[in-house]
């Protein structure tokens, strides 16, 4: 069953349906209908934050879910499903996958990533692990720990990773070339052509969020482009 779930993702798009508390679409009911829209558009899976959103999406959408639970701890910069407590809540909500921060940042309580992955295997059997990494070395480490998938989610969002304007296609290429654990391309993918480039670079599947599910950010990009065009027209 688990291998079938992973195989189902191959060469497809996963849509990240997330909204923060200060955003207009915040709330499980909004994310649930967003997931349905993504399903109708051809998404093969959904990435969702919080147990509440996972449950709401499960009620309306048939797609498998990569669940995560963003939580802040005072002794750590890790916030994507940082402890086994959040993992269990995501599993209980019905997610088939859990996304965890697998970067080299210090974890809450100083827990080692190896111990964290082992705890997930022992306490949530059958739950597939997606390791969110920011560098090649982190990806290699996560693969060595036996995670089910590696995602480039954190590239550009940690002190040790390079900040790119677009997706980190080189990281996708290097990790995919290892030929082991499937690699998901995620992060700053704004256009269909960028998504296609990630697949050409070896990505198993592509995760797109903001460019599809955050209308305020989409609108902002259009508004900025139009204002710049108007400025150039006035000065020409």
TrEMBL record:
GO terms (BP aspect): carbohydrate metabolic process; N-acetylmannosamine catabolic process; N-acetylneuraminate catabolic process
Function recorded in the entry: Converts N-acetylmannosamine-6-phosphate (ManNAc-6-P) to N-acetylglucosamine-6-phosphate (GlcNAc-6-P).
CDD domains xref list: NanE (cd04729)
Cited Pfam families: NanE (PF04131)
A GO CC term assigned to this protein in UniProt: cytosol
Root EC class: isomerase
Catalytic activity: an N-acyl-D-glucosamine 6-phosphate = an N-acyl-D-mannosamine 6-phosphate
GO MF annotation, one: N-acylglucosamine-6-phosphate 2-epimerase activity
The UniProt record lists the keyword Isomerase: yes
Name of encoding gene: nanE
SUPFAM superfamilies: Ribulose-phoshate binding barrel (SSF51366)
Protein's UniProt name: Putative N-acetylmannosamine-6-phosphate 2-epimerase
Statement: the UniProt record of this protein carries the keyword Isomerase: yes
Higher taxonomy: Bacteria, Bacillati, Bacillota, Bacilli, Bacillales
Organism: Cohnella herbarum
EC code: 5.1.3.9
Keyword annotations from UniProtKB, A to Z: Carbohydrate metabolism, Isomerase
Cited InterPro entries: Aldolase_TIM, NanE, RibuloseP-bd_barrel
Family: Belongs to the NanE family.
Pathway linked to the protein: Amino-sugar metabolism; N-acetylneuraminate degradation; D-fructose 6-phosphate from N-acetylneuraminate: step 3/5
